[in-house]
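Late entry, evening session. Most of the bench is empty. Finally got around to the prediction I had been postponing all week. Sequence below, unchanged from the version circulated by S.P.
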Amino acid sequence: MEAIVLAGGLGTRLRTVIPDLPKPMAPVAGRPFLAWILARLADAGFGRAVLAVGYRHEAIRDHFGTDYRGMQLAYSVEQAPLGTGGAMRLALDQVDESPVFVLNGDTYLEVDYAEMRAAHVAHGAALTVAVARVPDVSRYGSLRIEDDRICAFLEKGSQGPGYINAGVYLVDADVLAGIPVGTPYSFEQELMVPGVATLRPLAFRTDGLFIDIGVPEDYERAQGLFGVRSRG
């Protein structure tokens, strides 16, 4: 298995706690947050990960190099912010496998990658989205799911429990190949939302731990959660 990890985030909302680091390098329980993500990929048997980097990319490359616990690392460097879709398209040139996993570098999700890939193949999906159930969807926006297919991405604002896009995708290379090269592009807002009826993304449900460190309060919560894991 192969993954693209979107690790070019500026971490604007975390400036008060990590003033001069790319967001995936934010220290969590004694190591960069990105290390927790890469460790999970290595444990799952991934052979290669392409890190889609931008802001302060040297800090990421200097820390991780070209190998992490036997998993090969490559770097796709954007010279200006390209958004999620633009970063995926740039990284695609270094990808050898299809379908390829895509992960957000500021989100940690416990998901069975092999089982997700098996479901993707069995259903003939072009795009599979890992979805997590949370107590309150208001921060993220929710999903409408019918027969294990996502039929609508709902705007933020609704409240209460529900399923959300958990930031882990399995996508066929030809879907990413259709994204304009070198142009800022949102995978979520310009491809998934308007194309949901055509793509019919497969929803892969997981009850594993989900945490997004994009805001200071969840960044602080991650310290405790991963502190327990490091002691274990």
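Two things to note before I forget:
The longest strand covers residues 162-171.
The chain has a mean pLDDT of 90.
Will write this up properly tomorrow.
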